[in-house]
Amino acid sequence: MKAVTTSPAPAHVDVVLPCLNEAEALPWVLARIPPGWRAVVVDNGSTDGSAELARELGATVVHEPRRGFGAACHAGLTAATADIVCFCDCDASLDPSLLVPFVRDVRAGKADLVLGRRRPQGRGAWPAHARAGNLALARMLRRRTGLRLRDLGPLRAARREPLLALGLTDRRSGYPLQMVVRAADAGWLITEHDVPYRPRTGRSKVTGTWRGTWHAVRDMSRVLAEPTALTTAGGPTR
């Protein structure tokens, strides 16, 4: 079991990992955090020892008692201290080492927000109902913002201060979409990178069932129905 090594100096990049009962996946995920980066595991009420294991493996652990994917993500963003913050699921479906070119683009001013376009690897990596829901949301997003994105996946990178300035309020499944919508309203340059998407370890809490997918689509549809945000949160200086 490979532990994550963290430097006492401020991390160059913080990787926020929302976590709810992911003890089985944590060793694989944390072993793939790039050197010099800090893993911020946000425990969202795990009962399988995830928080203790993450701490043993060298991650910074933040506790967010309020259930919800958005609540966990935002707690991690608030706790982060690095200039650039990344987000990645903690279920081993996505490899956090793939974030290196995302960060490179943000740092070079080629993008303000970089998203991972998931490319399924093997059967069961992306269930049909979850893929259909994502496609429908991408189409609605295009009508709402004009962005021609093909995925709204959780792997992403941006600068911390501008993200906080977006004033994100959703604390459920709509959080990732609200980030994109408000960034688009603020004139951010948003790009995509293709990334392999593996079968997750364990069962999904959101899109593992039709019911979970329906709840996620409902949450995100509410975000798309919001009026255009009157925000001054522009993209990072390029």
Helix content: 25-40%
CATH architecture assignment: Alpha-Beta Complex
**Which geometry do the CA atoms define?**
globular
- How many domains? 1
* Oligomeric state, counting identical vs distinct chains: single chain
**SSE sequence, one letter per element:** EHEHEHEHEHEHHEH
Q: What's the CATH class label?
A: Alpha Beta
By secondary-structure content and strand pairing, the structural class works out as alpha/beta
CATH fold-level assignment: Spore Coat Polysaccharide Biosynthesis Protein SpsA, Chain A
The end-to-end distance, rounded to whole angstroms, is: 40 Å
Q: What's the overall average pLDDT, rounded?
A: 86
Helix count, per DSSP? 8
Any low-confidence stretches, pLDDT <50, length ≥5? 1-10
Alpha carbon gyration radius: 16 Å
Largest sheet: spatial strand order: 3-2-1-4-6-5-7
Full CATH superfamily name: Spore Coat Polysaccharide Biosynthesis Protein SpsA, Chain A
Number of strands: 7
Strand fraction band?
Answer: 15-25%
* Main beta sheet: 7 strands, mixed
Structural description of this entry:
The chain is α/β, with parallel strands linked by helices and 238 residues long. It has one domain (13-224): Spore Coat Polysaccharide Biosynthesis Protein SpsA, Chain A (Alpha-Beta Complex). Helix content is 34%, strand content 17%. The chain contains 8 helices and 7 strands; from the N terminus they run βαβαβαβαβαβααβα. It has a 7-stranded mixed sheet with strand order 3-2-1-4-6-5-7, sandwiched between helices. Helix 1 (26-30) links the parallel strand 1 and strand 2 (38-43). Helix 5 (128-145) packs parallel to helix 8. It is globular, with a radius of gyration of 16 Å. The model is unreliable at 1-10 (pLDDT under 50).
